[in-house]
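Example with several molecule types.
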Amino acid sequence: MVVNAYIIDAVRTMVLMRMSFEERLGSHLKRVEQELQAAKSAAVKPAGLTVPQYAALFVLDEQPGISAAELARRCLVTPQTMTTILRNLESAGLIERTPHPLHKHVIETRPTAAGRKALDQADKRAAAVERRLAAAFSEEEADTLRALLARVSESLTTDPILKS
Amino acid sequence: MVVNAYIIDAVRTMVLMRMSFEERLGSHLKRVEQELQAAKSAAVKPAGLTVPQYAALFVLDEQPGISAAELARRCLVTPQTMTTILRNLESAGLIERTPHPLHKHVIETRPTAAGRKALDQADKRAAAVERRLAAAFSEEEADTLRALLARVSESLTTDPILKS
DNA sequence: TGACGACCATCAGAACTCTGATTAGTCTCT
DNA sequence: AGAGACTAATCAGAGTTCTGATGGTCGTCA
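Resulting structure tokens for the full complex:
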């Protein structure tokens, strides 16, 4: 019945034009990213942070006084999203925002002492997750994974469907 | 000054315990997943669907009458999230929900004619994105990528930090 | 100088996503 | 039959994320 199975599959593909979820690369990517998100979330939660809040604090600690727009670019989110994240961080007393002395329209953001403390606490556990991840691969394997992901990225960002 | 660079890096690592964002595998995964999400979103948008709505309709079309809880498992979201998605789909007239004849507590969900039409329209473009993705890799490369992602997954789900 | 474009910040609205909690039906085992 | 476990559905609340729109500021270039 191998032939029948083949025919059925071919007909299904041609008629319905459907690919099952499991055979799609995107499903694998989504699941893994979701698990990573869950692991990081559990890691930073004891510090009272969410993952995006942790990311924002992380960048702020390296570059205090950065603008919200620049922060958004570093954290791979839109400025609107960053506004929301900063609002929550500020009301928790983890950051403070002051107008830029020269550019009046720019607001400088920097972590408070409490913010740095929360970041330290969160980073210990978050970095442990990343280290564990890194330890699961040889240098060569990690490079291969990065290269393949870059290929995915390139394939997606040059996709003509986005322009139609 | 190679030695100096090495020392500086080592000190930074030991004192701050920080890994920069760019060297983290998680960043690559997040960015790629985000791009994939954006591509799919653009693909299904002309049909008036969001990506989660498309995923739900897709599974519903294959298995009409499935319960919301089962649907949530297939789509990799929580039942609460699926409730939200189904509420939006129902108010758009793309699905209909009727009580199960035997199990009174279960509600059967199935796509309407309009739902199937939207799915067809969305799937043409969404499948094109996946096909383009698949075409960017040889069979062997795709297998390698899947295998490496599975290793990431395994590393994450067995992480002891989640139990502490 | 004045117009235009680029950029910053933010509001508004919508969707998705989670955790936590509640309510209720089904099943199993005693 | 009844207790306990499991599952289904959903509400409540919070956070993140997007698109779209608004208003203000800065710099450049005619």
